[in-house]
């Protein structure tokens, strides 16, 4: 709530103006029944037609003022909540892009999506409603009670007798409402996650004919949301009839008691009619208050979810640290890391590379190969040990400066639905020669023979390219900006051996001064690397050149022997 208020503060002036308009409109509206009672009890009995006209005209004017004031105020409140939500959503998105990977893992992507969409919508609704009803309901309630007291103190007692009952209903509804709506938002998170998973895996789902299974999974999540929404809605819908029942019971009591009092000459019929109008106004105000509580609880639950993200600490802060010197370009010094902070995913990894050297990383899936690259890119910080680039602790380098020295191809990298050239350029505004040179090194000659060349349009995710063609476009993208450090995560796996070999030769020739880390499944892709790191379960079981490893590392020799038949 504090966070939402922070966003409301700049709008305090306009909100104050709006509330004044609303206040005036509501007060005028409150006076209407009182004027009616004046007409009925004084003007009509005295037969003064002129004063009936004057009071009647005044009533029309006041009613018009009330409507105009309400509409104007509602327009302002709509604009305010729209602007506030706009900024809130913008900041939330910016923050999401700055979250560290560990924080993103903790929030989960689907939950971040629903916070960005439905939670901000709930906050929008809350700000809007609170402005609309926040002034109106209390004024109608308190003003109504004050006016009825002055009109007919005895009948007001009837009204006051129903208030505790109504208060109890409001309290019951709003406390249960918050709980039910919080649960609904959580169910929505699940729904978003299921749809996202299905979208991402649509090809696999179709290939394995798992459409029905997926549909069932989705239906389950969908039913969950509907069920919780229904429970919350049911509760809210019970409110109105119950309130109406109480209202009408109260009205009946007032009419009966009023009839006796008129008969006894204690009061006049006009007063009773005005009183009935006020009674209705007061009960409506109570219902507004209850609706306000619902909106508030829904908005507050969502506001809390948004604030959690906005107030998440900036984890990846840089620590100034003097350069340590040394001729190493990249150095891992006894690095350990765990994603979940339970079990290490990497244990005590050390290696170092001089400028222009190549490190090969090989090992079974899940052994931590990609994790090493993620740490080097500082998507995560290591739990123990130090990673340094150019002798400087990674944590002392500005993230933007850090990312500009890397060229990266990830395991599941993506291409945009855009021209091939634009996919290689990637918004960096590189000259055409660089794109072409990068494509040549990446062995992506197929681009030239394709209709349209560099201008050829790709389908979303590059679906109109083969796996190997995709990898080569991605390679060209990584090479185009002439990076200091090149990270390739299993990015030549779809190339045939001949093209793979040509790629390695071209890399060695055109990117002599680039330090390379190459993750591969095939020994042939890395055997010429200066050093090779063999990983198993996050531990280094071998580190050295191909020849050394063939002599000393059993795991490496085993992989080599399995692949030997294909390679040599
Ligand atoms: P490789 O690239 O060698 O196949 P990874 O480095 O991707 O392996 O993964 C190493 C281990 O870390 C695996 O056990 C995997 O389950 C785990 N892991 C990878 N990414 C995450 C993540 N974002 N959150 C939690 N665990 C992860
Ligand atoms: Mg991997």
Automatic annotation (TrEMBL):
Any one of the GO CC terms: plasma membrane
Sequence ranges assigned to domain ABC transporter in this UniProt record: 330-562
Recorded topology in the membrane: Multi-pass membrane protein
Transmembrane segments: 12-32, 52-73, 133-151, 157-174, 238-260, 272-294
PROSITE patterns: ABC_TM1F, ABC_TRANSPORTER_1, ABC_TRANSPORTER_2
Entry-linked InterPro entries: AAA+_ATPase (IPR003593), ABC1_TM_dom (IPR011527), ABC1_TM_sf (IPR036640), ABC_transporter-like_ATP-bd (IPR003439), ABC_transporter-like_CS (IPR017871), P-loop_NTPase (IPR027417), Type_1_exporter (IPR039421)
Matches recorded under SUPFAM superfamilies: ABC transporter transmembrane region, P-loop containing nucleoside triphosphate hydrolases
Domain ABC transmembrane type-1: 23-298
Subcellular location: Cell membrane
Gene Ontology terms, MF aspect: ABC-type transporter activity; ATP binding; ATP hydrolysis activity
Top-level lineage group: Bacteria
Keywords, in A-Z order: ATP-binding, Cell membrane, Membrane, Nucleotide-binding, Transmembrane, Transmembrane helix, Transport
Main location: membrane
Keyword Nucleus part of the UniProt annotation: no
Keyword Transmembrane belongs to the record: yes
Protein name (database record): ABC transporter ATP-binding protein
């Amino acid at each position: 709530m504090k966070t939402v208020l922070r966003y409301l503060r700049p709008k305090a002036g306009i909100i104050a103006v709006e509330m004044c308009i609303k206040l005036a409109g509501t007060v005028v509206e409150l006076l209407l029944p009182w004027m009616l009672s004046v007409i009925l009890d004084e003007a009509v009995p005295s037969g003064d037609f002129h004063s009936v006209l004057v009071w009647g005209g005044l009533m029309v004017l006041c009613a018009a003022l009330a409507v105009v004031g309400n509409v104007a105020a509602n327009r302002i409140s709509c604009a305010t909540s729209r602007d506030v939500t706009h900024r809130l959503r913008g900041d939330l998105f910016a923050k999401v892009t700055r979250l560290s990977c560990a924080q993103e893992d903790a929030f989960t992507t689907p939950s971040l999506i629903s916070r960005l969409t439905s939670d901000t919508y709930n906050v929008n609704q809350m700000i809007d409603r609170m402005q609309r009803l926040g002034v109106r309901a209390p004024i109608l309630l308190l003003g109504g009670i004050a006016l009825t007291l002055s009109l007919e103190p005895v009948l007001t007692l009837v009204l006051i007798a129903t208030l505790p009952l109504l208060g109890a209903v409001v309290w019951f509804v709003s406390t249960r409402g918050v709980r039910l709506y919080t649960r609904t938002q959580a169910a929505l998170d699940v729904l978003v996650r299921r749809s996202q998973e299905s979208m991402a895996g649509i090809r696999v789902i179709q290939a394995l004919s798992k459409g029905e299974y997926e549909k069932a999974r989705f239906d389950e999540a969908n039913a969950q949301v509907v069920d919780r929404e229904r429970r919350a809605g049911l509760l809210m819908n019970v409110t109105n009839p119950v309130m109406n029942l109480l209202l009408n019971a109260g009205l009946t009591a007032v009419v009966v008691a009023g009839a006796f009092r008129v008969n006894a000459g204690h009061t006049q019929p006009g007063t009773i009619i005005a009183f009935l109008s006020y009674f209705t106004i007061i009960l409506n105000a109570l219902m507004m208050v209850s609706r306000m509580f619902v909106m508030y609880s829904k908005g507050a639950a969502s506001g809390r979810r948004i604030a959690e993200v906005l107030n998440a600490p900036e984890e990846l802060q840089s620590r100034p640290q003097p350069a340590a010197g040394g001729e190493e370009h990249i150095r891992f010094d006894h690095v350990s890391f765990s994603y979940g902070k339970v079990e290490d995913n990497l244990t005590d990894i050390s290696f170092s590379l001089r400028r222009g050297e190549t490190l090969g990383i090989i090992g079974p899936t899940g052994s931590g190969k990609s994790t090493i690259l993620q740490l080097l890119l500082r998507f995560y910080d290591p739990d123990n040990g130090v990673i340094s680039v150019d002798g400087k602790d990674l944590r002392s380098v500005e993230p933007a400066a850090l990312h500009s020295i890397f060229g990266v191809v990830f395991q599941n990298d993506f291409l945009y639905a855009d021209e091939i050239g634009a996919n290689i350029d990637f918004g960096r505004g590189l000259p055409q020669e660089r794109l072409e040179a990068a494509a040549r090194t990446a062995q992506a000659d197929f681009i030239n023979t394709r209709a349209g060349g560099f201008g050829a349009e790709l389908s979303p995710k590059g679906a109109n390219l083969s796996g190997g063609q995709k990898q080569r476009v991605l390679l060209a993208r990584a090479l185009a900006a002439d990076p200091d450090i090149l990270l390739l995560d299993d990015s030549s796996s779809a190339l045939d051996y001949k093209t793979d070999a040509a790629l390695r030769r071209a890399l060695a020739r055109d990117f002599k001064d680039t330090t390379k880390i190459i993750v591969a499944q095939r020994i042939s892709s890395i055997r010429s690397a200066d050093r090779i790191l063999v990983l198993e379960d996050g531990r280094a079981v071998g580190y050295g050149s191909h020849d050394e490893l063939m002599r000393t590392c059993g795991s490496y020799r085993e992989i080599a022997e399995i692949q030997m038949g294909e390679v040599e």
